[in-house]
Specification:
alpha+beta, six-stranded mixed β-sheet, 23% strand
Length: 222
């Protein structure tokens, strides 16, 4: 019998965090991240010093028992990439911002690491995490930001990968995408988000040869 050992390439996700808490614990976390040793000999994926398992060990847990396939990135604006995490950290240190919060990202396989989040908040009890997360293909868009610290809006309307509208108002987003699809918003009073998506998909299907591609993204609150 032939047995194949196949390592399936995951969908990579990026989660952007804003962490609030006591200044003492925030500074301790920053110092911990900025002084991470390079453990490429231990990392099963060669992610280098910012491998999540490296940080998990410093937080006092066994990296083999915590989901940590991916990296932490001091760059708070990291995006999901088909090639996976670079592990470089983009050459920046983690610092406490002027608003007293620490911002960073993780790039992890399949989705955000809830194991890492729970471990971090156990080690630093004062921490509260706001975040938004998506994967490289846009299969999900989740956000948790009750205090609006991240500065992101709930709806994004794109035309050819350029963000045309960025808003928390559902009807404003719906009207924008209807206009981009060549439809008059006044002809669709009170139209729902889901129905606007259906109409836009119909427009895309019927006019596949058109030059403009439009997309409406809704970030789901957790």
């Amino acid at each position: 019998m032939l047995i194949l050992n196949i390592d399936i390439m995951p969908n990579w996700s990026a989660t952007n965090y804003c962490c609030s808490g006591s200044r003492e614990e925030l500074q301790e976390f920053c110092d911990m991240v900025n002084s991470l040793p390079n453990r490429e000999d231990v990392s099963p994926n060669g992610f280098g010093k910012y491998w999540l398992g490296n940080l998990v060990s410093l937080l006092g847990a066994d990296w083999e028992k915590v989901f940590c396939r991916g990296t932490l990135n001091p760059d708070a604006s990291a995006c999901a990439c088909f090639c996976g995490p670079s592990g470089s950290g983009n050459g920046v240190d983690m610092v406490i911002g002027e608003d007293g919060c620490v911002r960073f990202s993780t790039e992890t396989a399949w989705g955000q690491s809830k194991d890492f989040e729970e471990l971090l908040c156990e080690r630093f009890p004062s921490f509260e995490l706001a975040y938004r997360s998506t994967d490289e293909f846009g299969n999900f868009h989740t956000i948790h930001d009750p205090q609006k610290r991240l500065g992101f809006q709930k709806y994004e309307v794109y035309a050819d990968d350029l963000c045309e509208v960025y808003t928390d108002d559902e009807q404003e987003a719906v009207a924008a995408i209807l206009r981009l699809a060549g439809l008059n918003p006044d002809d669709y009073p009170g139209i729902s988000f889901s129905r606007a998506e259906e109409l836009t998909e119909e427009w895309r299907t019927e006019a596949a040869d058109r030059d403009v591609y439009v997309e409406l993204i809704q970030w789901e609150e957790e």
